[in-house]
Amino acid sequence: MISTLSRTLGGQSYLGPAVAQFHADLPESEKVAELARFQGGEARVLLATSAIGAGFDFKEVDAVIHLESAYGLTDFMQESGRTGRDPRRSGWSFCLIKSSERATRPSDSTDRLEFRKYLNEQICRRRLIALNFGEIPRSCDLSWKLYDLCLQQKAQQDLIRQAVKQSYQEATAEIEFLARATEFFTDSVV
After folding, report:
1. Which transformation does this protein catalyse, written as a reaction (predicted)?
2. Whole-prediction pTM value?
3. pLDDT tens digits for 31-44?
4. CA 38, CA 126: separation in Å to the nearest integer?
């Protein structure tokens, strides 16, 4: 799959020869050459299997895109950890899957089941990750980048805050109007 995808993307005029590949079937000498192309900046995209997930430290990876799901949550986190290594740059991890990949199966390993829970999480992915790795879940720090679900919740909260603020402003304007009207009528009666 990686070789086919590499040929397809390599044929795109906007990428050209800027696509490197790394997978278990590649001879060791080619793996070394492909990694050198990527690390040297000659290749802007590295297509890889999970073979690249652990033990590699790339400073300038901005995004990891998973085509299909990972074997488990640990693998997904390890592979996603290839991005965001430079503290001055944000890193993103995307998982492009079929909706059927979300469904749990009796044959799922514990780690695979945890990954499916991650995919189906509705509240906070960071909380689920912390629980999975034996950590105490904490509220998001204001300096942290928000995950997708937290971004959605923040956007909803911002809309609610704006609606409440507008409602208060309208109510305040009505009260001020009534106060002025009452004052006007009180002054004119006296």
Report:
1. Couples ATP hydrolysis with the unwinding of duplex DNA by translocating in the 3'-5' direction
2. 0.58
3. 899 889 888 888 88
4. 30
